[in-house]
Amino acid sequence: MTRTRPPGLSCHRHRRVHPAVASRGTGTVPAVAAEPDPWSLDAFLASLTSVSPATIRAYRSDLDAFVLWCERAELPGPSTVTRTTLRRYVGSLATRSYARRTIARKASALRRYFGWLTRTGLLTSDPSAGLSAPGGSGRLPRVLRDDELTAVLDDPPGTTANDTPAIRSRDDAVLELLYGSGLRVSELCGLRPEDLDIARRRVVVWGKGSKQRVVPLSEPACDALRQWLDHGRRIIATADSPADSVFLNQKGRRLGPRDVRRLLDRRAPSPTHPHALRHTFATHLLDGGADLRAVQELLGHADLSTTQHYTHVSKQRLRSVLDATHPRA
After folding, report:
1. pLDDT, tens only, 225-257
2. Active site residue: 184, 233, 267, 309, which one?
3. What is the architecture of the domain spanning 146-325?
């Protein structure tokens, strides 16, 4: 009696043959259908139309880490996540020595994600409602001392002596914009030639969430920009350089945040983050009597409470001046 082998089994030891292997003789490989994503992360990220690409990347990273943690705990989808689950996850971040500011950011991403799942009907209730996390570190923004600012803007150290005049002119323009107009590094790197109005001393800035604001340019910034655009940029630019980018790196490509950090490392006498120039800009305005709302507008802060951090810095600086100079302080 002859037995018929079940389809899909090889003639040797009756092992099942993978469809891709079985089809090699025909030269075709059947397409494998993608499994649906039970977490709907792509759909959630696609819904974030009012935030910057950097924010979307941060959400993707934070949520990918959360999903991995859930899958290790055998939680296959958001419907299996409870408020207790989220609290345990936040607690696990603390035990892994994450900074409080980082934990707060990750918790914020979870609240926004589960809020979206609930609004779209993918969940019947929001387990992240009321989810708390430790606040930010509470550290005041670093403000450059006058001697540090002078070294960065006017008297760079000898480590930059070998820079070409073109590179020096670019660095001058970058640093004058960061301090003189309080731009974020991402805003500076995204500047286009049409955003600059040097004759009227102003620049159009595209901030977080693609929000536009107009910021004044200082006279030193205007001088540095003219020198860079009229001379330095033409020397660095190549045939492939992007015409829509104000600043270029040494290879003629669009200047990026890492390039800005490197150039500041060369110019600053001590380790300094580019954002410190923005902090210094805001603090110096408040020290000079600027209105808090005006500073908020210049910085592009959506919430006034963010700008209020600088009032603490300003008061602290004034207190130190008083203590050092007043005879009865």
Report:
1. 999 999 999 999 999 999 999 999 999 999 999
2. 184
3. Orthogonal Bundle (1.10)
Of 24-33, 76-85, 277-286, where does mean pLDDT reach its minimum?
A: 24-33
- Per the annotation, the verdict on 87 as an active-site residue is no
Please check the confidence at residue 203 and state whether its pLDDT lies above 90: yes
- At 238, is the secondary structure helix, strand, or coil? coil
| Catalytic-residue membership of 98 | no
Catalytic (active site) residue 231: no
DSSP reduced 3-state for 235:
helix
Q: Are 133 and 103 contacting, i.e. CB atoms less than 8 angstroms apart?
A: yes
278, 279, 284, 309: which one is catalytic?
278
SS3 label, residue 38: coil
User: Does residue 208 have an active-site annotation?
Assistant: yes
Per the annotation, the verdict on 262 as an active-site residue is: no
Annotation says 326 is catalytic: no
41-119 CATH pick, 2.40.10, 1.10.150, 3.40.1350, 1.10.10: 1.10.150
pLDDT at 182 over 90: yes
CB 117 within 8 A of CB 78: yes
Instruction: Please indicate, yes or no, whether the overall pTM of this predicted structure exceeds 0.85.
Output: no
